Amino acid sequence: MMVCEYKPGLEGIPAAQSSISYVDGQKGILEYRGIRIEELAEKSTFLETAYLLIWGELPSNEELKAFEHEVRYHRRIKYRIRDMMKCFPESGHPMDALQASAAALGLFYSLRDLHNPAYIRDSVVRLIATIPTMVAAFQLMRKGNDPIRPRDDLDYSANFLYMLDEKEPDPLMARIFDICLILQVEHTMNASTFSARVTASTLTDPYAVVASAVGTLGGPLHGGANEEVIQMLEKIGSVENVRPYIEDCLQTKSKIMGFGHRVYKVKDPRATILQGLAEQLFEKFGHDKFYDIALEMERVVEEKLGSKGIYPNIDFYSGLVYRKMGIPTDLFTPIFAIARVAGWLAHWKEQLAENRIFRPTQVYNGLHEVTYTPIDKR
Ligand SMILES: CC(=O)SCCNC(=O)CCNC(=O)[C@H](O)C(C)(C)COP(=O)(O)OP(=O)(O)OC[C@H]1O[C@@H](n2cnc3c(N)ncnc32)[C@H](O)[C@@H]1OP(=O)(O)O
Ligand SMILES: O=C([O-])CC(=O)C(=O)O
C-alpha cells in the first residue's frame, strides 16, 4: 500500500472528482458548472442556480417553471414536525433546531430508494422547500408565536422573508436576499460538503446527509463565522478601536472572524459582490455604522496580513446585508444552510452516481502491547 504524508485538515488532498463548482483561489474566480458567479448573481435566481448545480445544466423555461412549482407546493411542514419544534428550548441555537428538524424529516421519508430518479427529485424538492419554513417556524415559536403559513403567491426568497414577520418584503430586499443565496449555495469541497459526501457514501437517506452537513456548517471556522462577524463588529464599536482590536488579535493569535480562507489567497469574489449589495441596501434604507468599522477592518487586516493572503471571505459582508434586512444575528448561519442545502444535494447526487464509501486511513501514533492494569493498581 502507498504510504502518504499526513496533511492536517487534508489540505490539498482531493477527496472527490466533481464537476459542480470550481475555485481559483489565486485569481479569485468561482464558477458553478462553468458559469462565473458574477454572471449568475446578476442574471439568475436561487432556484434556477440550484437546478443548474443539481441537474448539471441551466433549465429550459418549462423545466424551471415545473421546479419552481414543485418547490412552492412543498413548502408546508407537517404539524408533527411543528409540534416537535415547539418542544425545543427557545434559548437553543436555530442551527441546532434546524439540524434536528432536518433529521426528523427522515422519520417520515426514510425510503432510501437511491436508484430511483423520482425519489432523488422528491427529496431535493422537499428539502429545498421545507428548510426555509423550518427556520422561520423556529424563529416565531421561540418568541411564543405560531408559525406563519407560506404564501404560494410569493417566490422563494420573498416567501421566506414574509414568513419571518408576516410582512411582504420590499422587492429590492427580496432580490438581494435571493442573490445572497446564489452566492452561498456551493463552494467545492468545503467542510460541510465533505461531511455531506461522507454521510452520503454510506447510502443513508438525504435527510441524514443534510442534517450532518448542517451540524458541520454551524461551527465558527465555517458558516458560523457570519454570526461571529457581527458580534465582533459590535464589540469593536467604533472605527478608532479597529486597529487596537486587530493588533490584540495578532498578539494573542486569535482569529479575526470573516477573514482568511483555505483556498482564496485574495479577496473572496463573493465578498466583493456582497459588499456591493450591502451598499445598495444602505443607499435605500440608511447607512449602518458597522459598515465603516468593516471597511477599516479590511484596510488594517490587508496592511497586517495581506502578505499572508488573508482577506475578507464570504462571511465578512453577508451579516451586514442580513442585519440591514432586520434579520436576527443567530439566523445568519441557518440562512447560509437554506442556500447550501442545494449544493449539498448536488454533491449527494454526484456521490451516489459513482459511490465508494469514504474510509481514509490514519497515522497511528499511540502505544502497542500495553498490559491491562487492574483498577486497584492505577
Ligand atoms: C464559509 C466559510 O467557511 S468561509 C471561512 C469562515 N471562517 C472564518 O472566517 C474564521 C476565521 N478564519 C479562519 O479561521 C481560517 O482562515 C480558516 C478556517 C477559514 C482557514 O483555515 P486554514 O486554511 O486551516 O488556515 P490556518 O488556520 O492554518 O491559518 C494559516 C495562517 O493564517 C493565519 N490566519 C488565518 N486566518 C486568520 C484570521 N482570520 N485571523 C488571523 N489570522 C489568520 C493563521 O493564524 C495562520 O498563521 P501562521 O501560519 O502564522 O500560524
Ligand atoms: O470553501 C470553504 O472552505 C468554505 C466555504 O464553504 C465557502 O467559502 O463557501
From TrEMBL:
The keyword tRNA-binding does not apply. Pathway: Carbohydrate metabolism; tricarboxylic acid cycle. Keywords: Transferase, Tricarboxylic acid cycle. Gene3D superfamilies: Citrate Synthase, domain 1 (1.10.580.10), Cytochrome P450-Terp, domain 2 (1.10.230.10). SUPFAM superfamilies: Citrate synthase. The keyword DNA-binding does not apply. Pfam families: Citrate_synt. Signal peptide: none annotated. It comes from the Bacteria. It catalyses: oxaloacetate + acetyl-CoA + H2O = citrate + CoA + H(+). Belongs to the citrate synthase family. This is Citrate synthase. It comes from Nostoc favosum CHAB5714.
